[in-house]
Amino acid sequence: TPILSVSDLKKTFPDGTRALKGVSIDVMPGEFLVMIGSSGAGKSTFLRCTNHLFKPTSGKIVFEGKDISAVKGRALRDARKHLGMIFQGYNLVKRLTTLENVLLGRLGYMSSITGALGIYSREDRLRAVDLLERVGLGEQRFKRADQLSGGQQQRVGIARAIAQQARLILADEPIASLDPKASDTVMSYLHQVSREEGIACIVNLHQVDYAKKYADRIVGLKDGEIAFLGSPEDVTDEV
Ligand code: ADP
Ligand code: ADP
Asked: What is d(CA 224, CA 113) in angstroms, rounded to the nearest whole number?
């Protein structure tokens, strides 16, 4: 059974922009799905609706067997517990260390953080160090987040999502600000931890080449609709 099942998702913004016109996608546990499409196709809106940063106009979103289309408050927090988010801008807490940023994942998505670091057990800390090592950043653990390169910051974001025990990672243009070498490193680590931990991913990209290299399946979005859904081998260049 799918970990995420989205049916007929529509999003019309107050100004009348129809960003999603009825998108349906099932994602299987552990699947690495890449969503491609030009700027304005609706990729970001899809991810934001899926984790409730945006309210969908209509449609159904079932995550881990629960309909989360209209949940609020505590039920929404529970649903988000296993939903990791990775952003183009990294969204780390700049003045905290790399290790502390990973530990924040334990508090859950978008929690308030100040002063809460003392609560972590030795076990949590060891686990966080292990996760940093798995994204190649063990040696950087006491560095402040804002002293890392963009690619390194994004790898901290990956470690944080695993610390959060995400079962599905939604990554919105995670490599859009990175050079080709850092981009490939980030994609490679994300793909690797997805495989090792069995975490499903939906990754928004505008680069077809990375999609072909890493995706189990590719979704091509165009003007708020699915224009392509299939394996990387079947992608033609016009998608
Ligand atoms: P992508 O991520 O594929 O670049 P987006 O999901 O960001 O596409 O945008 C899809 C469409 O929705 C675009 O036309 C964009 O201008 C529009 N859009 C996005 N956010 C808003 C908003 N808050 N209000 C109005 N229109 C929006
Ligand atoms: P990205 O490159 O991440 O897609 P955008 O520049 O498209 O970023 O959008 C940045 C922010 O502005 C987002 O929060 C998006 O929802 C909002 N936005 C995008 N297009 C519009 C629009 N036409 N009207 C209002 N807000 C928009």
From this structure: 36
Nearest CA to ligand 2 atom 16: 45
| Nearest CA, atom 17, ligand 1 | 19
Query: Cα 49 from chain centroid?
Result: 13
Report CA-CA distances (Å) from 186 to 30, 33, 43, 105, 165: 18, 15, 20, 18, 19
Q: What is the pLDDT of residue 160?
A: 93
pLDDT score for 116 = 53
Question: Residue 17 CA: which ligand 1 atom is closest?
Answer: 26
Q: How far apart are CA 54 and CA 11, in angstroms?
A: 9
Per the CB < 8 A criterion, the answer to whether 145 and 92 are in contact is yes
**Residue of minimum CA distance from atom 13 in ligand 1:** 40
Helix (H, G, I), strand (E, B), or coil: what is residue 147? helix
Q: What is the DSSP letter of 144?
A: B
Q: Output the six-digit token pair for 13.
A: 């913004």
**pLDDT per residue as tens digits for the range 151-203:** 999 999 999 999 989 999 999 999 999 999 999 999 999 999 999 999 999 99
Pair type for strands 200-205 and 217-222: unpaired
Q: Residue 154, exposed/middle/buried by CB under 10 A (0-12, 13-18, 19+)?
A: buried
SS3 (DSSP) at 212: helix
Helix (H) or strand (E) holding 221: strand 217-222
Q: Is 204 in the pocket of ligand 2 (CB under 6 A)?
A: no
Q: Ligand 2 pocket check: which of 38, 44, 91, 206 to mutate, most ligand atoms within 8 Å of Cβ?
A: 44
